[in-house]
Amino acid sequence: MSATNDRPPLSAMPFRAPTARLALRPVSRPSPGHVELDGAWWPRSRDLTQELPPLTEVLDPLWGRITRIAVNPRYWPILPRRIFVNGHGVKVGWFTSELDPHKILLLSGTAGPWDLLVIPPATTDSSAARLMAAASAGTGPRSTASALMAAEQPDGTASSYEAWAAPAGRLTAGM
């Protein structure tokens, strides 16, 4: 008697490091009615079409399938209506007055909402490290995205994307 196997032979897949620069709060689910941040995201550019897929690829396995993303359009020159990630579509919407301009909101069919501080792409390494640590801290006082951004500015005013120095690479997850 002989055994047959119709499966193709196993092949080696190269390891692919996460491409999203991300720091998350050490909590499995947000608290009901929360207004705090669940972490921070440091995109490499202002192009949401390029930046959202790597972010969603990382978060899908952690938070459940991301189905919708909302941003404030103040700092994003192009807003896609939909992106495709891991074989499914994700709707992208925008809100001007309801959503902090320094935050992104992600919704999952199984959990969420999830709020992330958006660190401007041109932020220096040291500023990004402080902002990521503050937004993802599991202890201490919670703060809004704009309050964290204002605290990072020497004059105490909220930042704009144009006011930041050249980008670099300190991050918690992915490079």
Q: How would you characterize this protein structure?
A:
The protein is of the alpha/beta class and 175 residues long. It is 21% helix and 19% strand. The chain has 3 helices and 7 strands, in the order ββαβββββαα. The protein has a 7-stranded mixed beta sheet with strand order 1-2-7-6-3-5-4. β6 (103-108) and β7 (114-118) form a beta hairpin. α2 (125-136) runs antiparallel to α3. The chain is globular and about 60 Å long. The model is unreliable at 155-175 (pLDDT under 50).
The amount of helix comes to: 10-25%
How many β-strand stretches? 7
The major beta sheet can be summarized as: 7 strands, mixed
Series of H and E elements? EEHEEEEEHH
Poorly predicted regions are 155-175
